[in-house]
Amino acid sequence: MSIKIKIEDPKSKEGDSLFNYSLAIRKTIDGNIIITDHPDIDIIVLPSKSKVLTLPKQEMDDIVYDVQDNLFRFLSKKGIIKNDTIRSGNIYGSLEGQIPKSNTEIDSLKVCLMVIADFVEKERENFEYYKQYEKKAMARLADPEEEESTELGEVPHARRKGVITPGSFPLAFGSIGGQGGGSGYI
Q1: 55 lies in a domain?
Q2: Could you tell me if residue 138 is inside a domain?
Q3: Which site in 41, 46, 108, 121 is 20 to 30 Å from 32, CA atoms measured?
Q4: 45 part of a folded domain
Q5: Are 25 and 44 in contact (CB under 8 A)?
Q6: What pTM was computed for the model?
Q7: Residue-by-residue pLDDT tens, the chain, 186 positions
């Protein structure tokens, strides 16, 4: 299901909007909101616990952590998350932060969704660029330029190639002198 988020300026003409994004959102039975637009993470808003939780879509790596960290920094700077509540969750690779209670008439859930949509929209440029980069890199590997490739037999076979002499054991394999012998203990 996709949800449209539209914030209108009460002073502007009808139909004008300050903010108009669309998010891919699912709602769970217990009322949690799962935003699946980002290719690296799922963003879960837990209104009952006033919390935002992020989970990696695939395996956890530095890129996923950086995206999670950027999201929570963005939410913290916008005042959606209390900075001192950002921590790892009880699920491997998750990060979570607490949404403060609103002292005004503002609906904190709507504002939270708006700011998350803004983050996803700003990130969209990055993951579209990365997708195009990967596509070009795969095309370059599958069909390389003439100067980046050689035909079979074009590079002659040599008896010895590289820097490791056949029959010797490098230092990493336990020899102290690099040419065999020794106990391997220093």
Answers
A1: yes
A2: no
A3: 121
A4: yes
A5: no
A6: 0.66
A7: 555 555 555 555 555 555 667 788 899 999 999 999 888 899 999 999 999 999 999 877 788 899 999 999 999 999 999 999 999 988 888 999 999 988 888 888 888 998 999 999 888 888 888 889 989 999 888 888 888 877 776 777 777 777 767 676 656 655 555 555 544 444
User: How many domains, in total, are found in the chain?
Assistant: 1
Interior/surface letters 92-106, b for 16+ CB within 10 angstroms, e for the rest: ebbbbbbbeeeeeee
Inside any domain, residue 132: no
Whole-Å CA distances, 24 to 18, 33, 64, 75: 20, 10, 19, 19
Nearest by Cα to 86 from 69, 105, 109, 104: 69
Domain that holds residue 25: 2-121
Structure tokens at 32: 């949690």
